[in-house]
Each structure stands twice: as C-alpha cells, then as structure tokens.
Amino acid sequence: MTDRILLLPGDGIGPEVTAQAQRVLEAVADRFGLSLAFESGLIGGASIDAHGTPLTDEVVEVARKSRAVLLGAVGGPRWDELAVDVRPEKGLLRIRKELGLYANLRPAVVFPALAAASSLRPELVAGIDMLVVRELTGGIYFGEPRGRGVEDGRRVARNCMVYDEVEIERITRTAFQAAQGRRRHLTHVHKANVLDVSQLWMEVVDEVARDFSDVELVHQLVDSCAMLLVREPARFDVIVTGNMFGDILSDEAAMITGSLGMLPSASLGEGGVGLYEPVHGSAPDIAGQDAANPLAAILSVAMLLEHTLGHAEAAAAVNAAVEGVLADGARTADLVLGDDPRDVIGCVAMGDRVLARLSS
Ligand code: IPM
Ligand code: MG
Question: Is 276 a known active-site residue?
Fold first, then answer.
C-alpha cells in the first residue's frame, strides 16, 4: 500500500527545512521498504500570494485524503499588516481544525551534545525529557464570540476561552496514556484561581485520573509552572494544558533544551491524518540563506514514522542519525553559543550529514 504524504512547506525557512525532511523521509522509505507518494501544496503567505487566502479548500481536501501532512512554517513580515482572519497563521489554525487535530505532542529533550547551548546552567539542563501535550483545536484560539468593534466610541476587541468536557477529557486521556509509556508523572497546567474554564479542566482531569491510578498527577498554576520550568526543568515528565498555555509553555520548554531549532511536533486527532511540523517558526530573518536548522523538521519525520506509519524502527533510525551528526560536531548557526569554535554548516549540508549517517 502506498501512503500519501502532503508537503506544505509554507513560508520563510519552511521550504528549506521541509526539503531536507523530505530527503530524509525518502531515504528512510527506501531503506525500510515503505512506499510513499508525495504531493505538495501551499499554505500561509505563499497561499495568500497565489490565491488570496492562507489555505484553499483544495488543499484541505488533499490533506484529508493523505496519511500525513509534513508542514514547514507560516508567516513573515510581508503579511503582518493583514487582519487576523486572512493572515498566514490562519491557514495553520484552519488545517488543524479541519483535520480535527486536537492533540499536539511537543517533546522537549536535551541532546547531550547540545547541553551547552542551553541558556540555563548545565546541571539544570541534564536529563530534561518532557512532553508537552497541548490541546490544539479549542480554547481562546477558536472561542466565540470574537472580533473587533467600537462600543461607546471606544475600540474594543474580544476573544473567548471556551472548553467543553469532551474536549478536555480526550486530550487528558492522550496525556495520561503518554505518561504511562514514560515516567508516569503528569502535570496539569491551569489558572483555576481565576478562570472558570480552568476549574472545569481541574474537575475533568481528576475524573479521568481515576482510570490512570498508576500515574502521579499534579495540578500546577500556569504562572508557577513557567517559573518552575526554568528553575527545575528536569522534574517535568508530561504536561497537559489548553491551547494558549500550551503555546507559550512549549516555546519555553523548547528553548531551555538548547534550541528551538531542534524540536519536532505531532498533531493527532480522531481521524487518520497526522500533521507533523517543527515547533520553530518561519524565521524570516534567515530565510533563503541556507542557514536554517533542518533537524526539527527531520525529527518531525521520525514522529511521522512512529505515530502515523507505526514504524518504530525507521523512527529510531532517524533519531539515531540526528544524534550521530550532533555527536560528530555538526552545528547549524542556531546551535552555537558565543565563541564555539566548531564549524557552522548550512541547512543543506546538515541534511547531507543526516543522510550520510542514515546510510552508514
Ligand atoms: C505554534 C505557533 C502557532 C500557534 C501560530 C503560528 C498560529 O505559535 O504552532 O505554536 O500559536 O499555535
Ligand atoms: Mg507557538
């Protein structure tokens, strides 16, 4: 059976990193005898320029018929002046929603070879291995009513944080199940001292917890969680939280590991399609210079192999190849702090190194 993979490279460095990820996926497919068919489409600013909308219905349809979507990044200064509803980011939000991808898995792991690139002291960074499970299709990102207007002569803007119990329960189950396969510790992040929504999360998380008595559950306020992440990051195993808190905390978790340029993500739902993308953005300042780090996109391929194609061995081969090139000393510019004397290589060269490792 041939699996269809939709590439949505997007904007900025998205096309550069996605190209390297595709090369790796093709090589791995060859080696493990997987049959893949690639298609590509536009999303974000690239789609706005071509079609006047950040995501066309046609691309949504192709995505629905695919096994997995490999996405680069969206956005850039060229489209910053546009209203929220037609911005590049809207394309990303829409595809997540249309495909029902409510579970966003963002692992944040320290690669031993990169511990020195973290902005935290090495002894704090050692052993960081956490998974942020972010709810992705609800909360303040999608709540109604929303919008801007003028009331009593003043400009007003409004967004709503809304969750129902089913949305909370399904993401909580995903997180507990993930914790069972890891260190059996789950931190639920909330703001229940202020928000009704968070109080409902507390209730539902506690109800679901009865089915997972082998996992230790801690409820943590979001502000103190942000603080603990920099004070004692290694204490975290799995974190579960809503869309907005998860957006913010996953960047924080990513950065303390050394580089946002290293971290992949998977977005899964009830349907069969999975979407895989690096956590980093489109980095317009370095786009087109062959300076981007493709490793987060390449590690997203490993997640695709594991979660959608169910091929743990192929996923492990990709992960091992990435660890290998780092151990060899290969670094893109984002992985070098201060006066690190190592040779800095570009995006394509990093892809070459991973391919060489894969075939060795
Ligand atoms: C992310 C990004 C997106 C989000 C933006 C680009 C819409 O920050 O994937 O974390 O907020 O979800
Ligand atoms: Mg984000």
Answer: no
With 60 as the cut, is the pLDDT of residue 339 above it?
A: no
Count of all residues that appear for the chain in the document: 360
Which class is domain 129-256? alpha beta
How confident is the model at residue 12, as a pLDDT?
A: 98
- Percent composition of the chain: helix, strand, coil (DSSP 3-state, to 5): 50, 20, 30
Question: What does the pLDDT look like over 233-285, one tens digit per residue?
Answer: 999 999 999 999 999 999 899 888 876 788 999 999 987 899 999 999 999 99
Contact 293, 347 (CB under 8 A): yes
Nearest ligand 1 atom to the CA of 251 is: 10
Res 42 pLDDT > 90: yes
Q: Domain segments of the chain: what residues? A: 1-105+263-360, 129-256
Atom of ligand 1 nearest to the CA of 247: 10
Measured from the CB, is residue 252 less than 6 Å from ligand 1? Answer: no
Q: Cα(68)–Cα(42) distance, rounded to whole angstroms? A: 15
CATH of 1-105+263-360, one of 3.40.50.300, 3.30.390.10, 3.40.718.10, 2.60.40.10: 3.40.718.10
